[in-house]
Specification:
Layout (H helix, E strand, L loop, with lengths): L7 E4 L5 E6 L5 H10 L2 H8 L8 H10 L4 E10 L2 E12 L5 E8 L8 H15 L4 E7 L3 H9 L3 E5 L2 E10 L1
Parallel strand pairs: 5-6
Antiparallel strand pairs: 1-2, 2-3, 3-4, 4-5, 6-8, 7-8
Length: 173
Amino acid sequence: MVAGFTPFDVTLRDGRAAHVRAMRPADEAEILQAFDRLSQDARYMRFMRTVREVNLERLRKTLASFPASGLGIVATVPAADGIDIVGTAIFVLGGDPSTCEFAITIAADYGGAGLGRALLTALIDAAKQRGLKDMEGFVLAANKPMLRLAARVGFSVAIDPEDRSIRLCRLHL
């Protein structure tokens, strides 16, 4: 158990299973592999800009900062080389210590199977356990699956007044 996060297994709607646990610095290589498997479109939806490669320094800083600055969780499945990461979800603490910002990435072949909901629900529960009051995320208006998921788990979804191509998803915890 890391920072109040208890690992769990989830069975997806299509019968496949994944193991969900806290992210750790030793996951770096698997996270890089997972990034390489993302399509250009999926990368754009997640980072809201074209990203061709991982900023390794930023990744290492983020991984090293958990759990003090937030929480990262991964969904893993068995693979020939050990495991594959098929989903990630993080929240990072903001300037306001009672608020966090979330982000989720799901592998294309795991989309629509319930993994995103399982990860987001686990992230919300972990934020509540930490005593956080609000969670928010910035989502491209074109990212309809993420916007539907956020609305289904209770987030309000509004147009970002500074950029109409972005939706601000907020949840009072």
